[in-house]
Known about the structure:
The structure holds 2 protein chains of 2 kinds.
Chain A: E1 2-4, H1 5-8, H2 18-27, E2 32-38, E3 52-62, E4 70-75, E5 82-86, E6 105-111, E7 115-117, E8 126-128, E9 132-134, E10 137-139, E11 141-143, H3 146-149, E12 161-162, H4 176-179, E13 182-187, H5 199-209, E14 232-236, E15 244-251, H6 260-268, H7 276-288, E16 293-296, H8 297-307, E17 313-318, E18 325-327, E19 333-335, E20 342-344, E21 349-352, E22 356-357, E23 370-376, H9 379-389, H10 394-399, H11 406-422, E24 426-427, E25 432-434, E26 443-447, H12 448-455, H13 461-470, E27 474-477, E28 481-485, H14 496-507, H15 528-542, E29 546-547, E30 553-554, H16 556-560, E31 586-587, H17 591-602, E32 608-619, E33 628-639, H18 656-670, E34 674-678, E35 684-694, E36 697-705, H19 707-712, E37 723-729, H20 730-733, E38 752-761, H21 766-777, E39 781-790, E40 799-808, H22 817-835, E41 838-839
Parallel strand pairs in A: 14-17, 29-32
Antiparallel strand pairs in A: 1-13, 2-13, 3-4, 3-6, 4-5, 6-11, 6-12, 7-8, 9-10, 15-23, 15-24, 15-25, 16-23, 17-20, 18-19, 20-21, 21-22, 26-28, 27-28, 30-31, 32-33, 33-37, 34-35, 35-36, 36-37, 38-40, 38-41, 39-40
Helix pairs in contact in A: 6-7, 7-11, 12-14, 13-14, 21-22
Chain B: H1 2-18, H2 22-32, H3 38-45, H4 54-90, H5 109-123, E1 127-128, E2 134-136, H6 137-140, H7 151-154, E3 166-168, H8 174-183, E4 188-197, E5 209-219, H9 224-239, E6 245-249, E7 255-264, E8 281-290, H10 292-297, E9 306-312, H11 314-322, H12 329-332, H13 335-338
Parallel strand pairs in B: 1-4
Antiparallel strand pairs in B: 2-3, 4-5, 5-9, 6-7, 7-8, 8-9
The complex binds zinc ion.
Zinc ion binds next to loops of chain B.
Amino acid sequence: MQVPLSWLKDFVTIDRPVAEVDRILTNAGLEVKTIEYIGIPGADLVWDRDLIVLGHILQVEQHPNADKLVLATVDYGADAPEVVVTGAPNLFEFVGQGDISSRGLYSPLALEGAELYDGHKDGRVKMKLKGRPLRGIHNRCMVCSEKELGISDEHEGIILMVKDQWLPDYQAGTPMQDVLGDAVLEIDIIPNIARCASMLGVAREYAALTNQPLRLPDYHVVMDGPPVEGKVVITTDKPELNPRFVGMVIHNVRQIDSPYWMQYRLRLAGQRPINVVVDISNYVMLEMGQPNHTFDYDFLRQRADQYAPDGPIHIHTRLPQPGEMLTTLDEKVHKLPPHAILVTDPLSNLSLGGIMGGLDSEIKPETQNVLLEAAAWNFINIRRTANALGIHSDAAFRFSRGVHPSQALLGAKRAAELMRRLAGGTVAQGIVDYYPNPPQAATVKLAYDYARRLSGLDLSGEAMADLLRRLEFAVTVHEDHLLATVPDHRLDIEGPHDLVEEICRVYGYDNIPNTILSDPLPPQRGNPKLEQEERIKDVLVQAGLQELITFRLTSPMYEAKLLPGSEGDAWPYVALTNPNSAERAVMRHSLLASVLEIAAHNSRYQERIAIFEIGPIFIEDEEEILPTEQTRLSLALTGQRGVPGWQGNNAGQYDFFDLKGILETLFGELHVPVNYEAAQHPSYRPGRTARLLLNGQQIGVMGELHPLVTERLDLHIERDQPVLAADIDLDALIPHIPPYYQYAPISPYPPIEEDLAVVVDVGITAVTVEEIIRRAGGPLLKDVRLFDVYEGEQIGKGKRSLAYHLTFQATDKTLNDKAVAKQRQRIIATLAQRLNARIRE
Amino acid sequence: MLEELETLYTEALAKLEQVENTAVLETWYHDTLGRKGAVYLLTRQVGQMDPAIRPAFGKRLNEVKNDLQAAYDGRLAALKTAELEAAIASSALDVTLPGRPLPTGGLHIVTQTLRDIYRIFGDMGFQVYRSPDVETDAYNFELLNFPPHHPAREMQDSFYTTKPDVILRTHTSAGQIRAMQAYYPEPVRVILPGMCYRNEQITTRSSIQFTQVEGLAVGHNISMADLKGTLTEFARRMFGAGRQTRFRASYFPFTEPSAEMDITCFLCESKGCQVCKYTGWLEILGSGMVHPTVLRNGGYDPGVYTGFAFGMGPERIAMLKYGIDDIRQFWGNDLRFLQQF
Lengths: 841, 341
Ligand SMILES: [Zn+2]
């Protein structure tokens, strides 16, 4: 909401600098987002206090040498008035009228040397006013347009203000800074300060925060027209949706332009001036927060002649009938949702209550008699309806945040009186006020002890009461509690906690001390699962992998790319009813798919991709309300092992055994005994796939991705470049990570090292051979390391040689060759017996 | 004989003068002082010598031998020094050439930021509690005092699932009630990190997915002053000891009183810059005293217990700290982005 400071000053004294006003309001929850300065320090163009002043136009004469120029005699507070040459079209009507000083016409006058914007150039170009002859008459001053002062882009005519009872009693020569200079605060209206969605609302808050009196608008209305009694009746079906409806009739309004000051204020507040009747309606809404609506009274009367020729106009609010339509004044046709509350007469609907007027009943240029509506509406219902219809009017903005019914009568009176004064109307006697159940003012009990405990402030009951009174609460102070009666403009106070917030706000959040928690510390249990996940991340980072965090929303189509030959997995998805895009429409089943999506993206730029993520997958559970969320670890490797430097990159490409090495390192660090077993999986290349077994239970799959999968993933990689991937169930792994383990003592005795090359049939796995060696080697065999694998003619077809480096060591003595030879023989014999292996010399 | 010795001596010294590298020096040694060198050959002749001159010759021979050895040692040392110097001189590197690059890994910047948050709040006794991404409307809204159609719901555009009343959580506050239910009747001091989802336009400033860290403390005597003190402590550890905090009144349905915490801008030292929109302040987190309805929904009697809650966005913190201007980078996972952290 745009709030001109000058407007606030109608209701409260503001003598603090603008920055201080900003701080006070912002700290209290009325966040000032931006400040726009006009003419005063802070603005791009600051109006010189001596050179840009208020001028009183005394006389306007034709320029003797030019048809399109006039000479205006202007009093600006100096000893003698100044004659100004100007082409302003809005002065021409005064030519030849002689002394017009009694008409009270004022305009900003810039004197020689003043800095202004150039009215004849596009945009805002500054210039300095210089005296020069204009068609033979020397001119050293200028009456200004809005563009020249930087108020708007308007340069058709000069600013022409008529001094009336509304324009403060400024004298000619008053600096324009004091007349039109302003700061406009853009205030963010959050839901619980809906009461501040008006100038009065903000002023009331400022008055409370600075402990100053608030000056209320003048709600008095002179009603001297014919009585309204018997001419209008108002009823409703739904008092809970429309608790109050106030109607007033104003006769003989003239739809002229509103006075300059009103147009100026409306524009500063972001409203476009239309004509005085519409402007008053908007002005009252902005001023005191009560939206109101004007109907064409004669139009309603003509309709009444059809349904009650001798009776009153009957305004009735109700819900729509099935299929009912309404055309709003912006000429849009709406199909009405069942909860929309309508203002109607017996013939049809007239307007969308609290949101927007209807096209037919709206005032027209020729309208002279007006039925003014100021009503109260249920804010949640207005919100639902406005959202359902996509209408975001100023009225809906306020009503959907809550306007207290007490404001309706005040708003109606204020608008009617302005129409009388500014539009020449006559206000009918009497007010039709349909208000079946006025609510009782709520009184809230606040125990001092609770207030102190919640706020941390050690305030007396009197001090608390004073802070609340500043906000217009009526407070009585008792021994251990106070009773606060909520002022009638507020809907947001429900309980004592709300009062504590008000006390803290007015006291100032900045004035509340900062303390550290002195309450007892809860039992500290940590989060063991998270700690293990973070540990796994650390190991993988040490292994040279980059952690990712990817989108958890995906599409079944994308995930199916990992399962060639099928439409996707069989599990149900958590699916969105309102996805942002088809690509992000379900919660993922596969973390690996997310990781590979990132691999594909990076493959355009990277020679080396080594990435992983730990995160959840989501399996819809038809039995339960919520899906199962499982924690997965997915890894992907592809491309160069090394990073190219100036000495070349000869490290080669990642292959199956790089991934396996990383996993072995991980499980080694975690001290979990994971075994690898050849396996089949549709995502992986047959023959290069392993499943990971922990205590016989499968915890994941690893391998080279199936070429059909890599092809579908849009990876920018070389032909036949392997992409390695693993997908591991951390919920199955983490419980097996031992909290502690035994260390292996370091023997002081020298080891004996030997090599052993074993020739076996090709089908026999490495893990089988190694296991037999370890068993047969007994406790003296400290380490078995495979260092060469060979297949070739030298050892015969269908055979494979596996060469191991064996380390024998005792912890209690130096081993001799004899003891080692014995173990070696046992190993050889067992291999021969179990695997029909022979030793390659 | 003696002349022969003297000649040998003079010539050997002269030759030694000529030696220019250690290899030639070794040949000289072999020929002169070696096992079959010239000096040895003369020594062998001592036996057949006239006994009368034998002692004098022997003495001189020893002198010559020692002198030559000393001369050799000196020459060897000098040559070695020269050769080392030459080797060093010829092996100088251009030390400005780049080093050999290591294939390194790294943690996602959001994980790094989360760990900072865990550590700082961990020191104050806050433990990590996690709750599901897919939530019921009850935990995400109703139990947090958001009635249906309440204006505050509009501030968070939810993703709905095909199951009625099941949504993607719009904030980690959804875990507050779960944490209270898990801890009751103990006091609570937790932080709740997690991924949240809102149906927003994807722009440089907003994403359909973002992480949040919620904090919750419930006990017998927890006040607004404790909230301010705890969060100011956090701000100073996270953003530097010199940071000032400012608490502004705000609105969240699940807290009352509510406050936004700003810190003095660390990019311009509060002089005003584009990032702080020339206010000198950076908005860091939302907070407040737990609403009595929420305490009750979590099982705690609001007449006996009080508490505070807060929530912050790790991406925003990282964006401020590192000048990241596009929130889409976080989930885009471009390695050229991630590896800068
Ligand atoms: Zn800054």
